[in-house]
Design goal:
20 helices; globular; alpha/beta
Length: about 625
């Protein structure tokens, strides 16, 4: 393969192709640097396994270069290189990996793997020098809303993270996706991750230079706990609250009740021992009803910001007692900028926002001005969409990287949420993982990173070059809506609301919905041309086919709602959707269980099942 055709992802900071070439022999050695031979062993062992799988080479591991067998790959420590930095040289006499630290040695093998996958045993000459922009480059996956991945699925994600040179993983928890030993009554009928599962994930991450950081919400987003009779007394507003014209169940802890902190302490003591990392994301975002219930008097006297900060500091003390450093979402403290300087210097604020125009620059500058460590936390835009929002995803991820790098953010955390049923299949998030990972590693080199080509060649192994671009195109259907909305698509809103409301209809027309239906139908046809060779190829094809089917179904449902119920168009659309809903629900259930535990699958499918019943009623009354 000609060097110009090779995809290196993330694109390294310095690549110089040479006229040399090297052919990896079937036999040979991987030579470990003497001073780090024990620590390098698992890295070299993993590389040897990949060389066997990808090109049939079977190198042996050795310390140093002594002996008769040729040295295929040699590791050498290079103090002149940055932390996590490496220099990878392919020359006529072999491959040399110079590393600034062990993580750098590992990342060099990720780049070498990409060369071998694309070129086989015959590699072109090259010298690559590389190091990351952001110290912390992370991914947060929501497992608290309906979908709890299997350990195998988490391992698959960690492998992808390692290839993208991401080094920080969080699994977002609210409710009961973890089997808290002290509270078996709340999860006994569920399928949570256990402490043993978390330890297995932690070890798997450690072997791939990924920090597995615990994450559990600790103020807002406590609805599942507060719905239980034994915890109802901890609610700020036990009878729920009004917001956005709707009534919601209680979601926020009462910060004036000392028992709230005692309860959190119990959950922490159940949860935290299963993690080796010394950080903990305590959440504390979206405390919607703070000051409207039991804390109303305290908020009136001291101010809601002070009440919030006092709770945050009580949580900080819990972590200090447990030798953990606090990370928390910054949305509430942003409302009280005069309180930001009071934060302890060892906390980290997580600045999140999911639209392309989120004010990352302004917020990042505020934190930098007072010397508070912070991460920028954009998102994949996959949730509330079924197949993503590609243009917004790219803009959001890019803006976060630019502002974070400009103002000295310590980390870059890609968030992948599961709001409202977690209907999007995992591969829909891959473009966001890939583009965000590339920007976090090297912003300047990766603004125009070839995401589709990377996914095709190195993730899906699609020789036709179809699926990568297909995913990006599927995520652009929302741009055909008359007035796209924030944090979701109108088609998703229409499908998610079933026949219960007119939500989403103000922003679409029958013509735009028909255009979306036709646009996605064309993409369905292109999916049939793909020839994936990844180990989950059949599942990926089923996931994407059903996701496309759901988008088209939502578009037709919108047309039904806008059509005359006594007309031929309504009847034709009803026949089509009623005949398809069972296939959608059945396939969604099956592909869900291929990657995830049962979790709250029934809750996720509830709206679709209600829609089926509505179709049946409409047909009976026709």
């Amino acid at each position: 393969m000609h060097p110009e055709e090779i995809v290196l992802f993330p694109q390294p900071s310095d690549v110089e192709w040479t006229d040399d070439a090297y052919s990896i022999g079937r036999d040979g050695r991987i030579a470990l640097a003497r001073e780090h031979n024990t620590e390098l062993f698992p890295i070299a062992e993993g590389l040897a396994a990949e060389l066997r799988e990808e090109c049939g080479a079977a190198p042996r591991l050795a310390v140093g270069k002594r002996g008769d067998l040729p040295v295929a790959v040699a590791f050498e420590s290079a103090p002149d290189l940055d932390e996590e930095g490496y220099r990878l040289t392919v020359a006529a006499d072999g491959i040399e990996i110079d590393y600034g630290d062990l993580a750098g040695a590992f990342y060099a093998t990720r780049t070498l793997k990409q060369l071998v996958v694309q070129c086989g045993r015959s590699l072109p000459g090259v010298e690559i020098v590389d190091a990351p922009d952001f110290e912390e480059r992370g991914l947060m996956l929501d497992i608290g809303r309906n979908k709890i991945p299997t350990v195998e699925t988490v391992r698959r994600i960690v492998d992808l993270m390692a290839d993208l040179k991401l080094n920080h993983l969080q699994l977002y928890i609210e409710g009961f996706p973890f089997a808290y030993p002290s509270f078996p009554q709340v999860w006994a009928d569920g399928t949570p991750l256990t402490g043993e599962d978390l330890m297995a994930i932690d070890r798997y991450c450690e072997e791939r230079f990924v920090d597995f950081v615990p994450n559990q919400n600790s103020f807002g987003h406590m609805s599942d706990w507060l719905a239980e009779d034994e915890f109802e007394h901890l609610a700020e507003s036990p009878d729920g609250f009004e917001m956005w014209g709707d009534r919601f169940p209680p979601s926020t802890l009462d910060p004036t009740n000392p028992e709230s902190i005692e309860f959190l302490a119990e959950t922490y003591d159940d949860f935290l021992p299963y993690f080796s990392d010394d950080r903990f994301n305590v959440g504390c975002d979206e405390t919607f009803e703070l000051g409207e219930g039991k804390s109303a008097e305290a908020c009136e006297e001291r101010g809601a910001g002070r009440v919030y900060l006092d709770h945050l500091m009580n949580v900080y003390d819990l972590l200090d007692e447990r030798d953990k450093r606090m990370l928390f979402w910054g949305d509430i403290i942003n409302e009280y900028p005069d309180l930001v300087p009071e934060l302890p210097p060892d906390v980290t604020v997580l600045e999140w926002g999911y639209e392309a125009d989120h004010p990352f620059d302004e917020r990042a500058e505020n934190y930098a001005d007072v010397g508070i460590p912070f991460y920028v936390c954009p998102g994949t835009s996959s949730w509330n969409s079924i197949t993503g929002r590609t243009e917004n995803m790219k803009g959001n991820l890019r803006s976060a990287a630019e502002s974070g790098l400009k103002h000295g953010a310590r980390g870059y955390l890609i968030t992948d949420w599961g709001d409202n049923g977690h209907w999007q299949p995992l591969p829909v998030s891959y473009p966001g993982y890939a583009y965000g990972g590339a920007l976090a590693w090297g912003l300047e080199e990766n603004v125009d990173a070839p995401v589709a080509a990377y996914l095709d060649r190195l993730v899906f192994r699609d020789g036709t070059g179809t699926v990568g671009q297909l995913l990006l195109d599927l995520g652009d259907y929302y741009r055909r809506e008359d007035e796209p909305t924030g944090n979701e698509t109108n088609v998703f809103r229409i499908l998610n609301s079933a026949f219960d409301s007119d939500v989403g209809l103000d922003n679409v027309s029958r013509e735009s919905l028909a255009e979306i239906d036709e646009y996605v139908a064309d993409l369905q046809q292109s999916l049939r041309r793909a020839e994936m060779d990844c180990d989950d190829a059949a599942l990926v094809e089923r996931e994407l086919a059903n996701a496309a089917r759901m988008v088209r179904h939502g578009a037709r449902l919108g047309r039904m709602k806008l059509a005359d119920r006594d007309g031929d168009e309504f009847e034709a659309l009803l026949d089509r959707n009623a005949g398809e809903i069972d296939e959608i629900v059945g396939e969604l259930r099956q592909v869900w269980l291929e990657r995830n535990r049962y979790g709250d699958l029934d809750d996720s499918l509830e709206r679709l099942n209600r829609l089926r019943e509505t179709y049946e009623g409409l047909k009976e009354s026709a």
